[in-house]
Automatic annotation (TrEMBL):
One of its GO terms (molecular function) is nucleotide binding. InterPro entries: Aldolase_TIM (IPR013785), NMO (IPR004136). The keyword ATP-binding does not apply. Belongs to the nitronate monooxygenase family. NMO class I subfamily. It holds the Pfam family NMO. Its cofactor is FMN. This is Probable nitronate monooxygenase. CDD domains: NPD_like. Gene3D superfamilies: Aldolase class I. GO terms for biological process: response to toxic substance. Keywords: Detoxification, Flavoprotein, FMN, Monooxygenase, Nucleotide-binding, Oxidoreductase. SUPFAM superfamilies: Inosine monophosphate dehydrogenase (IMPDH).
Length: 354
């Protein structure tokens, strides 16, 4: 199943396992996907530089195939008095979970430059970026050393900027996708164009491979986006129930038990728009009188609550990121999923060619 993406990136199947920050993506998942012929992707967001370095070492020791590391492009939050007001407003939630701590600090750049140096020094072959485009000096360093770069777009305008910056491929993130929206251009509102509409428009607008993301859950979805002109698919929610997944038991249960209508796009929990399952905590924050601070401030303020909730099994306070196709997530090994998706897509194309 050769495409412009598989040829350029040296993989067998046009399937990228999405880098899901916060725990779902594990080194074992990345290894399994890359060993099966897809492109496994470590999530560099939220982890410390030391942890990222350790995870890269684990992956390198267990596969000779290409893999990627994803980095969050630094944010420029609007620091206002909203942070203290929000912290005070969260007091009730903290008390309900037995959390007694002072207001946490936040790191606006997620140790970005340290992580860039780690990725360079450990010779990671492919680097992807979320939340925008790094500055030219960073991109130049990667290009100088022959690294392949991937950006994420939610609109044609963003895709054109990514191509102009020197990216080697673009993820077209449709509105169905779980997790944070990659929107970085415009007035701050989420760009919510569906995958089936967004993908061909970006394909027509750029001259580099496009990976479709959002609602692609199996070989049917893979075949569909390839037919739209994509050179592959980036799939995240499809791997949340994989054997190697680090997703919590509560999230994995929600994937099966909750309706396809129960995901929402909100900035209540982190300050950036993100798709996940609706919770009472989200509803309380959205209906509250205190303005929601920008990312990563809100992420830092709610993080103690969400972590404590996960530890105690209080799903109503957790961040349960998932895409709209969550009910199709299958419980198999990540490598087995890659092979299954590729075989299903190949069978579909074979039927149409008869």
């Amino acid at each position: 199943m050769n495409t412009a993406f598989t040829d350029r990136f040296g993989i067998r199947y046009p399937i990228v396992q999405a880098p899901m920050a916060g725990g779902p993506t594990t080194p074992e998942m990345v290894i399994a996907v890359s060993e099966a012929g897809g492109l496994g992707s470590l999530a560099g967001g939220y982890v410390t530089p030391d942890v990222l370095s350790q995870q890269i070492s684990v992956v390198r020791a267990n596969t000779d195939n290409p893999f990627a590391v994803n980095l969050f492009v630094p944010a420029n939050p609007n620091v206002t008095a909203d942070a203290q007001a929000m912290w005070d407003a969260l007091q009730g939630a903290r008390e309900a979970l037995g959390i007694f701590t002072s207001m946490p600090a936040w790191n606006a750049d997620d140790h970005f430059l340290e992580k860039v140096q780690i990725v360079l020094s450990q010779r990671v072959p492919i680097v992807s970026f979320t939340f925008g485009i790094p500055d030219a000096a960073v991109l130049h360093r990667f290009k100088e050393e022959g690294r392949l770069l991937v950006g994420s777009a939610t609109s044609v305008a963003e895709a054109r900027q990514l191509e102009a910056s020197g990216m080697d491929a673009i993820v077209a993130q449709g509105s169905e996708a779980g997790g944070h929206r990659g929107t970085f251009f415009g007035d701050g509102r989420p760009t919510l164009i569906g995958t089936i509409a967004l993908t061909p428009q970006i394909v027509d607008a750029v001259n580099i491979p496009v990976l479709a993301a959002g609602g692609v859950m199996d070989g049917r979805g893979l075949a569909a986006v390839l037919a739209l002109g994509a050179a592959g698919a980036q799939m995240g929610t499809a791997f949340l129930r994989a054997k190697e997944s680090g997703a919590s038991a509560l999230l994995q249960r929600a994937l099966v038990e909750r309706e396809e209508t129960e995901t929402v796009v909100t900035r209540a929990l982190t300050g950036k728009y993100v798709r996940g399952f609706h919770t009472t905590f989200i509803e309380q924050l959205e209906k509250g009188e205190v303005p929601i601070p920008d990312y990563p401030i809100q992420h830092a303020l709610t993080s103690p609550i969400r972590k404590a909730a996960a530890a105690s099994g209080e799903a109503s306070f957790m961040s349960l990121w998932a895409g709209q196709g969550h009910r199709m997530a299958a419980s198999l090994g990540a490598g087995d999923l890659v092979v299954r998706f590729a075989q299903e897509a190949a069978e579909i194309f074979a039927r149409f060619s008869e």
